[in-house]
Amino acid sequence: xxxxxxxxxxxxVFYILGSFFNKVSSQSESYAALKNLxxxxxxxxxxxxxxxxxxxxxxxVIEYNPYLSLPPASTAKLFSTAAALEILGADYRPKTxxxxxxxxxxxxxxxxIWIRGGGDITLxxxxxxxxxxxxxxxxNWADSLKKMGIKKIDGQLISDGSAFGYAGIPDGWSWVDMxxxxxxxxxxxxxxxxxxxxGFKTGSSAGAPTKLNSCYPEVPELNFHNYIRSxxxxxxxxxxxxxPFSYERFGTGSLPLNRSNFVVRGSLPDPEYQLACELFxxxxxxxxxxxxxxxxxxxxxxxTENIYKIGFTLLLTQQGEKLSDIIKxxxxxxxxLFAEGLVCLVGYEKTGNGSTESGLKEIEKxxxxxxxxxxxxxxxxxxxxxxxxISAYHFCELLRITNKSSSRNTFESSFPVAGKSGxxxxxxxxxxxxxxxxxxxxxMARIKSYAGFINTKSGKKLAFAIILTxxxxxxxxxxxKIEALLNVLAVQ
Length: 492
Prior knowledge:
Elements: H1 3-38, E1 47-54, E2 60-64, H2 77-88, E3 95-105, E4 108-116, H3 136-147, E5 152-153, E6 157-160, H4 175-178, E7 195-201, E8 211-216, E9 223-226, E10 229-231, E11 237-241, E12 248-256, E13 262-267, H5 271-285, E14 289-290, E15 294-296, E16 312-319, H6 323-333, H7 336-351, H8 356-368, H9 392-403, H10 408-412, E17 437-444, E18 447-455, E19 461-469, H11 475-490
Parallel strand pairs: 4-5, 4-6, 5-14, 6-15, 9-12, 10-12
Antiparallel strand pairs: 1-2, 1-19, 3-4, 3-16, 7-8, 7-13, 11-12, 17-18, 18-19
């Protein structure tokens, strides 16, 4: 071998050895960070499931109880958003339809107006409308009826969300969550994110009572029991209690001192009836009289046999926002109602039954056709149910499948970016993982989880999932341990 060949051979040998030792060093650092996490005293009694896979080679980078099913909180939204995107498509838009039952003569409708709910979770949503513009769609409906020559309705205004059932909330939701805005359940007819904005005037001294100033929307028959106190706090420490379809609401906890109108959001008791009431008000303002008032199918026990058939005329269709936009907000801002609504829309479009149960069956069927779903227990779409059981393996398989999908870019663009956006704004901020970790997070009492992708410094793309439950210590301590692991993985 000549001199030049010898130099080339030496270079190749050192290159291979260098790559080998770099790989060993990276693995050593990864396992050291993993060991530091799982052997921490605050995780001694915790449920832990961790898996990191290389999407190019399919190899496992690190793992710890990868098949252990745990409740992951909001990270569960990945299952509902990804399935909805694959099953319904990015351009899918939910619909609400307005029907005329009866006939019009001399500008009078002798019959009823029906609002047929199609599970549109974006009607009047604050996430898609500027403040004060939430009722614009109702104004448009009323103007359309006037242009059609209807100046009086000699009948009823009926709101119908029956195709989605009336379960109220998914299985496993806690009483402490139901009355709050994040505990607003899915429904065939949604309005204003199925939430109420309560405005409170607080006192000037600790322990002073608060006064309920305002309630938007105005909810007929609502009975609010106010036990919220004024305290030396800096944020909303109050809770609203109340079940679906119940007009009894209880406020407890505390709010900051010296506020003239501190807004607390709670869940709307009956969105189906509320939409009828809101449209009734707008029609009245526009000079369209409704003789027999606002009604709702569930509340008023209205028979829905043979509706939308003989004697019914479709007057207009309201299209909701595009699914891709809904999914982006769902994952970026972790909106429970949107995630639950997506589950119901899957069931509705696949079977005609928009219940949570129907939607989850279709979603589970979809994923079971792509990977082994043994041990996967989905009880809702948002992760608010502690009855959910999902492992790190399940998450990484979902991420593997979506990474190969034609909808990959749409789905991944909905993920918050560590240190930069959404619910990951503070994660790895100013650290190695900033900008390289894109993931959905989940947080509940004694639960912290993340699942997503890591774009490493060396150009690898890793899928990862970390689920921690029932640990002692603070959330901040748990996050710090997780950050240490993510930072090591990011620089590989």
